[in-house]
Amino acid sequence: MTVSATYSRTAGDMVRLSLRAAGIIAVEQPVEAIDLTTGLEALSIILKSWQAQGLHLWGKQEYVLPMLTSRQVYDIGPGDAVAISAATAADPPQITAPGHKLVNGQSISIVDVEGMTDLNGNTYTVASADRAAGTFTLSGVIGAGFGAWTAGGTVTYIGDHCAEAETFVKTTSSAAHVLDDAAITVTSSAGMDVGDRFGLEMDDASIFWTSILTIDSPTQVTLDSGLPSASASGLTVFSYETAADRFQRVLSVRSSDTFSSSETDVEMVSRDEYFAQPGKDSQGTVVWSYYSPQLTQGRMYTWQVARNVKQILRITAERPLKVPGNQTDQIDVPSEWYEPLKWALAAEIAPEYEVKIEEQSRLEFKADKAMELVLGHDVERDSMCVELDFD
């Protein structure tokens, strides 16, 4: 007999367990498609309700946000998707996406294009954005040899490159580079991988973002797109694999820079305090931050603003709980929470199946009791300081 410390269940497993717990199906009875759909919807509602209550210690993560000179507000997480209605194969390609809200310098992803399939699955930097005309170009991309666009495509704004800390790499370039260079010499490519987002400080103090095409050596990577301008040796380089989703809430923020391991605590303030602060464009060390979750992208406001692109914020935040899209998806809770989730789901769906009132009361009691027992697992240890008084 094999034993294991790991126990996992899919969303479909949880729906089946809950239907049985509520007496809706027998042990040997298979789950019908309509019951599965009902259960998955209820499961998603419960997970989002737990998220709002902050019941997910396992959802706390560390993130890194590279800052931009004089930028006051940063978008956290991917934005809305907009349909592409036309694309022109040129140097650089021009994209038409009516209703887009993009501005120059933002990073986007493109998928599902027909004909001009070279565009699919890549990330790009926006240039020549014209909201009124619904057009923009892809900075640094040579597109004259692309196939002709025939139909479709979706463009999504991917935010301001806030990344999960465990996939974030910072280093420097070790050679000067000029316009259209794609092979970039770095101090070290350790921790980087093909497909990672790659940011290089340019001579104009901006950051050019693209993706890594190949890892050529421990000190060289080749990018998907050539540089739009020159970049001197010794400038900042960032890369990351996993971008942050919209934060549910921010717990703490520290300010740092790319050449120092020291961090300075940033005070989290209210909306009123931030917007009442005069001189929001004054440069210096970030000492205040205000976070607004919004609906699709979070917004991180900072004061003071960064002096240069070498400054970063280190953020501890609660990520959103992921909801299952189909029955084979893993549930975004640790196995210790399966018991309260089973009973909570059983209690949630029971009224739809006209389960007797007394049975519904029993299910709710079981759900409350299981939650009470597991809440002790969702508490983090706090430090305690004791000061002796010898008077």
In short:
The chain has 391 residues and is α+β, with helices and mostly antiparallel strands.
Can you tell me about this structure?
The N and C termini lie far apart (64 Å). The protein has 4 domains: 98 residues; 94 residues, no CATH class; 78 residues, Beta Barrel (Elongation Factor Tu (Ef-tu), domain 3), CATH 2.40.30.180; 78 residues, Elongation Factor Tu (Ef-tu), domain 3, CATH 2.40.30. It has 5 helices and 21 strands. It has an 8-stranded mixed β-sheet with strand order 2-20-19-18-17-21-1-10, with no helix packed on it. A hairpin with a 6-residue loop joins strand 17 and strand 18. The radius of gyration is 25 Å and the shape is globular.
Indicate the mean pLDDT: 91
Task: Return residue spans where pLDDT drops below 50 for at least 5 consecutive residues.
Answer: none
Q: Helix fraction?
A: 10-25%
- Our count of domains comes out at 4
- The tally of beta strands, per DSSP, is 21
